[in-house]
Amino acid sequence: MKSQKSEKIILCVLLAVPITLSSMCDWVKARFYIDHMERDERLNVIQVERVVDTLQITAGSTLADIGSGSGLFTRHLANRVDPGVVYAVDINSELLEHIDDTAKKQRIDNIKTVQASEDDPNLPRSVDLIFICDTLHYIHFPDRYVNKLRSYVDEGGQIAIINFFRNWPPMSNRFERKQLESWMHQAGFVLKAEHDFLEDRYFLIFERQATVRG
């Protein structure tokens, strides 16, 4: 009897370990990103207000911030689209909890957090604009991912992508700008605008073409 109880206890512990390690990993990553993303040095480089101005978003729009991290851009976007909604999308539940807490403290009530999976943002509806900053290089199959995004963007809607072209972060899945443009074209998007005011990053805005119906 004691042996059976011991085996059950050991089994429960073993089953819990991966969950605990996964949760711990999310927590560690979240602490790093929260500290890293909003430090003064990065804020000076990433020029949040100028980027948001460039997007030319209007009040009442629906947006998705994919790879929302600490919620730095999410909060600014939410202020611009109010009473529209911004979906803060991330695979890290700890970061999403941080965004929820920060939004409550700052009384921003038009942010909705969304738990993404590795290959799908899991948005509850299509949006007017998807914003992806410093994120696409962490996705294992970015070509497949951007193709999936088509279903989440309204016709005439846009995807804005900011990504590195040199000095890539560790563990990056590197790709050339031409590759990205090709992936977006295959997904049914055309390049509408490009901006070069960000250091070490390109800033591209793609628009979804209308579906041709026979």
Structural class: alpha/beta
Query: Which CATH class applies here?
Result: Alpha Beta
Number of strands: 7
Number of spatially distinct domains: 1
- Percent strand equals 15-25%
Kindly report the spatial arrangement of strands forming the biggest sheet. Answer: 3-2-1-4-5-7-6
Shape: globular
> Ranges with pLDDT <50 over ≥5 residues?
1-22
Taking all Cα atoms into account, the compactness measure Rg is 19 Å
Instruction: Give average pLDDT, whole number.
Output: 88
Gap from first CA to last CA: 71 Å
* Helicity, as a percent range: 40-55%
How many helical stretches?
7
Would you identify the CATH H-level superfamily? Answer: Vaccinia Virus protein VP39
The CATH architecture comes to: 3-Layer(aba) Sandwich
Write the element-wise H/E pattern from the N-terminal end onward. Answer: HHHEHEHEEHEHEE
CATH topology: Rossmann fold
Q: What is the makeup of the main sheet?
A: 7 strands, mixed
Walk me through the structure.
With 214 residues, the chain is of the alpha/beta class. It has one domain (37-208): Vaccinia Virus protein VP39 (Rossmann fold), CATH 3.40.50. The chain has seven helices and seven strands. The chain has helices at residues 2-37, 40-46, 48-55, 72-81, 93-105, 142-149, 177-186; strands at 62-66, 85-90, 111-115, 127-133, 153-164, 189-195, 201-208. Strands 3-2-1-4-5-7-6 form a seven-stranded mixed β-sheet, with helices on both faces. Helix 6 runs parallel beside helix 7. The termini are far apart. Residues 1-22 have low confidence and may be disordered.
